[in-house]
Amino acid sequence: MSPSGRRMGKGHRQRGALATRRLPMPGRRGSPRGLPGGGGGATGAQRFLLGLFLHAWLWAASGSSAQVFNLSLSVDEGLPPDTLVGDIRAGLPAAQQQEAGGFFLSEDSDDSPLLDDFHVHPDTGIIRTARCLDREQRDHYSFVAATLLGAVVQVEILVNDVNDHSPSFPRDSLQLDVSELSPPGTAFRLPGAHDPDAGLFSTQGYTLVQPSALPEDPAGPFFQLRYGTPGSPPSPPSSSPLEPLDLVLLRRLDREAVAAHELQIEAWDGGRPRRTGHLRVELRVLDENDNPPVFEQSEYRAAVREDARPGAEVCRVRATDRDLGPNGHVYYSIRARQALWPLGDAAYFTVGELSGVVRVQRPLDREAQAWHQLVIEARDGGAEPEVATVRVSIAVLDVNDNPPAIHLLFLTEGGAARVSEGAALGDYVARVSVSDADGDPEQEEEAIGEPGVGLGSGSISLSLEGGDGAFALRSGGSPGVFFLCVEGPLDRESRDLYDLRLVATDAGSPPLSTEEMLLLRVADLNDQPPLFSREHYLASVSEAAAPGTAVVWVSASDADEAGTDHARLRYALVHLPVHCNPEGVWPAAECGPSFTIDPESGVISTIRSLDREVQEAVELRVVAQDLGEPPLSATCLVSITVDDVNDNEPIFRRQVYNVTLAEHAPVGHCFLQVSATIGFVEYSLYDGFQSYDTSQAFQIDPHDGRICVSQDIDRERDPATYDLLVKAKDGGGLSAQAFVRVEIEDVNDNAPVFNPSTYVMSISGQTQPGTEIINVLATDRDSGIYGTVTYELIPGDLSSLFTIDSTTGIIYLTSTLSHLESTTLLLMVCARDCGGLTSVINADITIHILQTMLAPAEFERPKYTFSVYEDVLEDSPVGTVKAKESLNSSEPVSYRISSGDLDRKFSIHPWLGVIRTQKPLDHETQPVVVLTVQAQLGGSPAYGSTEVNITVIDVNDNHPVFPKASDEVKISQTTLPGTALYLARAQDKDSGQNGFIRYTIASQNPSIFSIDSGLGVVYLNQSLGSGTPQKCTLTLMAQDLGVPPQASLLVLTVVIEEQEQSPSLTFANLVYQVEVSESVSLMTQILQIHAYPLGPQGASLQLLYSLEPSADSAVFGIRPHTGWIYLRRQLDYESTQTYNFRVFAWILEDRLSQNVSTSVIVHVLDENDNSPTFLHDVLFLKVEESPVPQGVIGKITAIDRDSGKNGQLSYFLLSDGKFFKMNPNTGELISWVALDHEHQVHHQVIVLVTDHGSPPRNASMVVYVSVTDINDNRPYFPQCLPGKELHVKVLEGQPVNMLVTTVFAKDFDEGNNAEVVYSVSPGKRYWGRFTVK
């Protein structure tokens, strides 16, 4: 830009004039900035010309010597515009002040804001402010003013500072994190405050402001400020003289006392009044692990029952740590200490690492250790953790977990469980002592801490059960000592064995008891004479009988002990005087003795030929004498008739007789006479065609053959058919037989019986006519027409509203109930059979009529079946039942269990219908639970119900149990290998595989024994040599087949006795097994066992046999001389399939010899003696109607107690084959055609079940199938045929709500499906003008 300028003319003042270059002056370069009189309105050309003029003038002036004057002015910042600053002329000499005439200006630089901030008068040189000045923006101005005469004034304007700014920090707040372990004197650097003002008005200092709301700390402040002093040089070049600003810690912090400090830092300047700025400092105290955990108690004391299970809570210790985070987290542990016992106290307990809960870790035993002391550590989670300890003393409370022990010492001769029947009253039989390992409740506090302290027996009561007063217990003086004494007379013949039970009961809560079974035998005295079965025996023998022919068998019995000399009899004959026929031709010698008797068996036989013409009759006297000391005897008379020779057998007129006999025929009524030809015969009657058991129901006259009733016969209780065998025998011993079949004819002797006889139900008042209300059921035990039941409704109040199906017993509603209020109706139903008998007790039906629009809730299924394992946890789901929601109601359905859960083992969710367990289940006590669940719709008093069958599935929760924990058996040293020594018997309450037991030998020393895994029979495997110990111990294990298996142990001690100097015995077989049908008659011989003595003289020794007394052997008997085992009680395969017992044998001549034994196993074979039975007498099923077949709608189940084919069942339909079929193998009832409720509501099906036995047995039952309605029919208007219209006329001008016509619709469905709602369809021409209700 070329130098230019303009003169400042008088009266012209304009801002923004064009600036020129400075005027060159000595020692300074510059350019003029103003022109005299210039204006902003000058054109560019004018300005250019003025510039050339000023430029030329300046160059001209520069050539002359100009004087330069200095003028310094000052003005305060912040003054208003037009404030007077000074006069440029004041810088000129006084002589020139009046000659100035105007000024040219020149600034220091091109961007000087002089003319923006000041007004300079061009003529007078007066300087005024153009705006409010800010020293912080510009603190001085400099320019040059030249007069027209060439004088130059250097003007300096200083802007004076005023206190118009407050100190300010870089930010309003600051957060510091300080460790609570920081030592006093620690400094924390803070940012300093900045004040744009200068000098005294800038920041002069800092103050730590104490909040007025906080009380003054007596210990003094935690912090103080440290900073530089004003005027001191700052350390960094850019820093303030007061920096650095530090916050200094005066004393130690404690986070647990104060977690945070909020400080206010105030910065102030030197103005009057002073200005301030603030900085808020939030100081957070960081936690350090400076606090150890502290327990709430100095010592804990607790008690726990000794039967507490592992995991049971004992007590809770609690420690707190005031630190934060991991430093404040407390972890618990038990400090292991030196143990006084093999297991230290810490081994029995555990403590929750986080919870501090002390729990039992392993089973406790107060009898071993009554108290425990633990040292529990509490350790925090710091890097260097702090630790605290506390002592926990735990007392183990005694639980009555040890039953008393009973110890028996027999005081009888030989120490055996035997007492003589001649024992006097008060004689001692045994010494009984009792003890208990548990503690005495009164002494328990004294016993704590003394392991093993047991209870004296003073708190144990001992009682004696059984014996019928023959024995009693007497106190022995010392606590826990009793004597078993004879209390009443003993008679072995009336009772030879007493089953006594000693029961020891402690005083615990609940008390524990121990039972000791004692089989006390009564030793025999020879106090019973023999007794003949008859006083006079009659017999006959043919004169043609050869010598040695048995004529008659006399039998006497001795009530003394069998097998002893007291009961062993010998028979002898005493011949009476002989009366011979005087006309005989034979010598007198022929009238001599003709008979002899076997002294052992009592069989009388001929010793020579007989001649009826010489001696027609013989009388003998038989003497039976026992071998006791002294011997006792008895006699009987035997009369023998010598019969003529007979060559022809009797002949029945008919071989088979068929006869019908009405049941309940009077006793003595004779209904049939059989007759056999050829002379005199004697008739006998037997039960069964192949049996020789006397008939109990009938008897026959032995002389005329009339068969008569001997007991009352009930066809419903007794067999419907009897097969009898009639035998006719003549005097010569020839016989014939005939068969009689008696068919028992039914009479109407049973009236129908309702079961149940009382019914209660609720129905809605909106129930439609034709609805099935309830089904009553009566049964009649008679058969045929006498067993067919019909039903009738007994007239009564409002009974006309109902009707009953006379065949099925289903009661239907015949009229509407809407006109009735909520009420209760009582109906009575009578059952009548076709013989005219009526039920003694009629069925009472109570029907509650509920006036509600809601029908009772109906379940989706009439019966639910669920299964659940017996070991499921409480609150486990079992199954869900669901009722259908009503179509015309939004009310919720609620559920409840109404019956079948007496023990409250189950619960049901009131809205969801989920059945859950709420108590432990046990298959062994209740394998099946049948619940009745009710569903209620909202608040409606009507409800529906369903049956829920819950099967509790067995788990292996019971271990096999031996009758005793240990046992002992004695054997001879000469016992042969393979001999059965012992039968182990254990029982398991579980079922199926869980209850099936296998036996093994867990350990034995020495290994010379084996065991049958299925039978539990222990055998000797090898000979017993001289090196065999006198006692051998075996541990027998009984283990079931469950998963996982359960087991128990039995310790068996085998005592080996030395061989006595007598011939030893052995059985031909070590174990005898036989299969016997359950239909075998009593007294039938099933098995003969045989033992034989060892040694050269063994063949001449006589052996005796007996059975070991037991529950199994009581079913059988044994012939003592022959070893034949026979049946004494009827067998029943369904009750017992196998019998195990032992048989003993000994030598009669050697009373001191050892007896030997063998095992007998009898397997019972099943016969088809049980008919199938249904689980339900009558079954009711419901199935929805459907246009397609429904398939399986129910299952009929029957059971048969027989096994194999006898228990295999097949099912058949006897009726209603049009709609249903039956699966013969599963019993599933199948709907194989579509069912229509509107066509047929009820179906009656007769199901036959038969087994596969020979001959087969069968049973039948009735199944009632109800077809429930679905909404498959549309409503229709009867008065308007389909496709037609109904025309109604109405006069105009009729008032609103006037009845125009009545229409009604019908629906073939039932219930809610048949309820019709009326409305007027929209869109029609007159829609909105008519309404329908």
TrEMBL record:
Keyword Plastid part of the UniProt annotation: no
Annotated stretches, region: Disordered: 1-41
MF terms (GO), sorted A to Z: calcium ion binding
GO CC annotations, alphabetized: plasma membrane
Keyword Transport attached: no
Domain of life, source organism: Eukaryota
Subcellular locations according to the entry: Membrane
SMART domains: CA (SM00112)
Ranges annotated as biased composition (Low complexity): 21-34
Major place of residence: membrane
Annotated membrane topology: Single-pass membrane protein
Gene Ontology BP terms: anatomical structure morphogenesis; homophilic cell adhesion via plasma membrane adhesion molecules
Sequence ranges assigned to domain Cadherin in this UniProt record: 67-169, 170-295, 296-406, 417-532, 533-652, 653-754, 755-864, 860-962, 963-1065, 1068-1174, 1175-1277
Keywords, in A-Z order: Calcium, Cell adhesion, Glycoprotein, Membrane, Repeat, Transmembrane, Transmembrane helix
Protein name: Dachsous cadherin-related 2
Protein source organism: Lynx canadensis
UniProt gene name: DCHS2
